[in-house]
Amino acid sequence: MAAFNVVLGCVMALLIILFTISSIARYYIKFILFIVLSLLSASLPIPLMLIRPFDPRNALIPAALSRLTSRMLGIRWTVRGLENVDDTRGAVVLLNHQSSIDLFVLSELWPLMSRCTVVSKRELQYLAPFGTAAWLWGTVFIDRGARSAQTVLNQQSLAVKEHKRKLLLFPEGTRHLGDKLLPFRKGAFHVAVDARAPIQPVVVSKYHFLDDKRLRFGSGEVVITILPKIETENLSKDDIPALIETTQMTMQEAFTRVSAETKSRLAIQQKHD
Fold first, then answer.
1. Among 147, 166, 186, 222, which one is least packed by beta carbons within 10 Å?
2. Helix H segments across 44-101?
3. Are 149 and 102 in contact (CB under 8 A)?
4. What are the domain boundaries of the chain?
5. Inter-residue contact 90 to 160 (CB < 8 Å)
6. Are 254 and 204 within 8 A, CB to CB?
7. How many CB atoms lie within 10 A of CB 66?
8. Which CATH number fits domain 1-270: 3.40.1350, 3.40.1130, 3.30.70, 1.20.58?
9. Transmembrane segments in this chain: where (predicted)?
10. Which runs of consecutive H residues, i.e. helices, occur in the chain?
11. Is omega for the bond preceding 228 within 30 degrees of 0, making it cis?
12. Entry pTM
């Protein structure tokens, strides 16, 4: 046992040294911590979730633990636009998609929006125990690119309309760290028009502290902006292309503006450091 403690202590000391002096080591260590702690945050409350399966409130405890993880990794969050959230109605909530750490964005939003349901790719359902936990808090899993995906999404119109669910989707479909949002897919907009529910755009500022190509994962600030709703009540399917264009332009403008703001503050911080 003594030898094991010595070896463990040496390994921990080495990891701390690498974390301090190597940005590449810091990148991998932070992502490993993100994955491990996210799995623990999701799986530990599973016994409690079994009391009321498929209830969106099951995600509140994992979300709280996830918020602690993000702060431990040096990410600071600011949420703006809470006055635009209307919990008396359902909505289709659209977010820009940058990285797997967008999971932290969902953990910030979950306690702020009632009756949230996330749409996710089918592969995550089989990533036990995380997939099991996500299933228990009501995540809607789809096979991207398959005809069944649109059928599943269409079925969510009823949940949005009659049960006042907030259906959270990433309309770009693919995560990226670029300055321009990728073209939006139509599925979410069909749901909104069918349910006569508003689009609720949510824009997450650029992760200036994260660079997958250069293997950099630092610390920094992220601003989540909940924009005013875009109504769809009087729209038909023929109006969907214009609705997509309006939504994407609105989100792009906010993304560019707020990302420039956080980049400016990061530059000032680095100058003082």
1. 147
2. 46-49, 60-72
3. no
4. 1-270
5. yes
6. no
7. 24
8. 3.40.1130
9. 6-24, 31-51
10. 2-21, 23-43, 46-49, 60-72, 102-109, 130-136, 147-162, 187-195, 240-272
11. no
12. 0.90
Amino acid 44: pLDDT = 93
Question: Beta strand 166-169 with 116-121: parallel, antiparallel or unpaired?
Answer: parallel
Percentage of the chain with pLDDT > 70? 89
Tell me the C-alpha distance between 39 and 35, whole Å. 6
State the pLDDT confidence band at 127, using cuts at 50, 70 and 90: confident
Q: How much is the pLDDT for 8? A: 57
pLDDT of residue 124: 83
Strand pairing report for 210-211 and 216-217: antiparallel
**Residues of the chain with pLDDT > 90: what percent?**
64
Give dist(CA 35, CA 118) in Å, integer.
19
Angstrom distance (rounded) from CA 56 to CA 163: 12
Give the amino acid at 171.
Answer: P
The residue with tokens 């269409």 is 154
| Contact by Cβ (8 Å): 182, 174 | yes
pLDDT at 99 over 60: yes
Task: Report the alpha-carbon distance of residue 57 to residue 68 in Å, rounded.
Answer: 18
Q: What is the rounded distance in angstroms from the CA atom of residue 39 to the CA atom of residue 166? A: 24
Q: CA-CA distance, 233 to 196, in Å (whole number)? A: 5
Q: How far is residue 156's CA from residue 142's CA, in Å, rounded to a whole number?
A: 12
Strand, coil or helix: what is 113?
A: coil
**pLDDT digits 0-9 by tens, 230-263:** 999 999 999 999 999 999 999 999 999 999 999 8
Give the C-alpha distances (Å, rounded to integers) separating 210 from 37, 50, 268.
Answer: 19, 36, 17
Distance CA 203, CA 224 (A): 6
Q: Are 233 and 88 in contact (CB under 8 A)?
A: no
CA 132 remoteness from chain centre: 18
